[in-house]
């Protein structure tokens, strides 16, 4: 039977309450907007919503019958039980893809995945929080804005951004670059992905070949007009060719799924069909070929950097694989978090999201209106909401991302809960955030690279964050670790809370939203970041200062 993936909507409950209904709708939504829903794949090469279809169907059945005082337990995308808890406990808890340290390697992951013992939930796929390419768009936009401030007098008009990858997350790049007023060229090997981004309104035009692409970019630069151009091709080849022609973009990055050498990155010289075949017959060769391509790809990025371009890693492990392939200087390229966003994370400001469970875009617009009134003086929030409401199309359930910080998230969530209670919104709203948030991720090559105190690879922080969110009555709490190429590289935590208008939701939102960001500020304060220490004082966050007991 061919499955359909409709976007859920309306106000009719199928579950025993809105908390359960919300999580069911979020599960349906990640498949509705996912990259390959027939195979349960949502984004990031292999990030899945459930382990397999029987597990998915059993999860749906469990959500349909779950009581308010029960908790559904999910292990790597498979439901393993429903247990009696209490009505202030999470209704779903998850542990996805966590492998014991010495065993947490890609080859073990692929073996256990084949044996159906494990599956990778990405960050927001397995815990049903993905909202389409919008999920990272503000982050990408903020990076471009920081680069503009630091290197280009605050203005990217007439500037050329070169990047690659138009998948679930990378697909946000063309629109983010355009919103930052740049001329952005994004190289993508899969024509379907280019079509999908054009249809979704994230990409403006598709070039016929490299010459055409460069002409479109040059013309836009000359007019100081923003443009987003997609080019079908392999990034390793196209980046090298542009460098060889002596053309130096102003900004260079990459968001191909380079983290996964088998199921993600497509090596130069191979068609998509050949890669699909090799995945089945000879993954070792594919891994070698992908790494060899990444070596060329990153060598070209370094070439651009040497010629003065602002080059950064956009969170896909491309430098790591290049270094393993012999590119000694791969880590001369900085990672986006450390280079541009860490001062925000240190204050607990990060990619917060809210999703209209009704499917009614008006609900999001009303929340936009509130934010524009309440945070009129907050330049990051006000500027973004204005841009987003005008230019960012909804995919699936209407949703918004907004980089809000400690206290701000709680305030928004409580106001929205009131709006639900007073009938100003047509149905409840789910609040969630990316795992790539202040207190929720340890990833020594992405989120926590070069932490001031050297604590890059300490995974206690996301584990504490998840436990704290359980103790704070969140509705869903998840602990994820890396799978595929990310195996052994990351541990992170996810949280979702539903504003259903009830006084109980007020309590859940107040505790969970406040403590979630507090854990982030405490994490950065512990590492010695002044912004976090300042935030602790400003917002009265309950920190215990044990600095005097540290060994020198
Ligand atoms: P995806 O698997 O949905 O898409 C990756 C895209 O890259 C695909 O469309 C694929 O065809 C293309 N591609 C692969 N090899 C290529 C090549 N050699 N040349 C050109 N195109 C190629 O993945 P995604 O969800 O878009 O994520 C992309 C990467 O970004 C992943 O590594 C992911 O983990 C990472 N990521 C970063 C952040 C962040 O905050 N910066 C957030 C989420 C994901």
UniProtKB/TrEMBL annotation:
Cofactor(s) named in the record: NAD(+)
Signal peptide: none
Top EC class, one word: lyase
Residue ranges occupied by any Urocanase N-terminal domain in the UniProt entry: 9-128
Reactions performed catalytically: 4-imidazolone-5-propanoate = trans-urocanate + H2O
Domain Urocanase Rossmann-like: 132-340
Designated name of the protein: Urocanate hydratase
């Amino acid at each position: 039977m061919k499955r359909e993936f409709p976007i859920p909507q309306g106000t009719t409950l199928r579950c025993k309450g809105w908390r359960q209904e919300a999580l069911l709708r979020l599960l349906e939504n990640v498949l509705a907007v996912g990259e390959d829903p027939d195979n349960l794949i949502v984004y990031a090469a292999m990030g899945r919503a459930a382990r397999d279809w029987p597990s998915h169907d059993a999860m749906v059945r469990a959500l349909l019958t779950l009581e308010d005082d029960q908790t559904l337990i999910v292990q790597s995308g498979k439901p393993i039980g429903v247990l009696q808890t209490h009505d202030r406990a999470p209704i779903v808890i998850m542990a996805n893809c966590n492998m014991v340290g010495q065993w947490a390697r890609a080859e073990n992951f692929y073996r256990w995945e084949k044996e159906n013992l494990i599956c990778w939930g990405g960050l927001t796929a397995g815990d049903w929080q993905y909202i389409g390419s919008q999920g990272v768009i503000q982050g990408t936009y903020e990076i471009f804005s920081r680069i503009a401030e630091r290197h280009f007098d605050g203005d990217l008009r007439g500037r050329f951004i070169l990047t690659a990858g138009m998948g679930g997350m990378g697909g946000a790049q063309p629109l983010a670059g355009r919103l930052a007023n740049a001329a952005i060229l994004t190289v993508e090997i899969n024509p379907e992905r280019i079509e999908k981004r054009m249809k979704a309104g994230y990409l403006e035009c598709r070039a016929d070949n490299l010459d055409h692409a460069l002409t479109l970019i040059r013309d836009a630069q000359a007019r100081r007009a923003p443009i987003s151009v997609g080019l079908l091709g392999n990034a390793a080849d196209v980046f090298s060719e542009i460098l060889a022609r002596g053309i130096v973009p102003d900004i260079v990055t990459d968001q191909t799924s380079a983290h996964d050498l088998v199921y993600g990155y497509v090596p130069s010289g191979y068609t998509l069909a050949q890669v699909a075949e090799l995945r089945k017959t000879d993954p070792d060769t594919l891994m070698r070929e992908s790494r060899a391509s990444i070596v060329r790809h990153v060598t070209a990025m370094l070439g651009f950097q040497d010629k003065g371009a602002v080059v950064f890693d956009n969170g896909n492990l491309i430098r790591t694989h290049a270094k393993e392939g012999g590119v000694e200087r791969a880590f001369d390229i900085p990672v986006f978090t450390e280079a541009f966003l860490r001062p925000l994370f240190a204050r607990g400001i990060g990619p917060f999201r809210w999703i209209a469970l009704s499917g009614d875009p008006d609900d999001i617009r009303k929340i936009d209106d509130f934010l524009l009134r309440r945070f009129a003086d907050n330049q990051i929030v006000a500027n973004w909401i204005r841009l987003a409401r005008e230019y960012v199309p909804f995919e699936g359930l209407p949703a918004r991302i907004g980089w809000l910080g400690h206290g701000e998230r709680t305030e928004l969530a409580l106001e929205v809960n009131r709006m639900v209670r007073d009938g100003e919104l047509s149905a409840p709203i789910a609040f969630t955030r990316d795992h790539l948030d202040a207190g929720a991720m340890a990833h020594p090559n992405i989120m926590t690279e070069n932490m001031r105190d050297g604590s890059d690879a300490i995974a206690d922080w996301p584990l504490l964050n998840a436990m704290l969110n359980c103790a704070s009555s969140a509705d869903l709490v998840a602990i994820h670790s890396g799978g595929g190429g990310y195996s052994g590289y990351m541990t992170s935590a996810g949280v979702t809370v539903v504003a259903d208008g009830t006084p109980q939701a007020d309590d859940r939102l107040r505790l969970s939203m406040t403590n979630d960001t507090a854990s982030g500020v405490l994490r950065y304060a512990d590492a010695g970041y002044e912004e976090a220490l300042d935030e602790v004082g400003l917002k009265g966050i309950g920190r215990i200062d044990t600095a005097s007991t540290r060994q020198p």
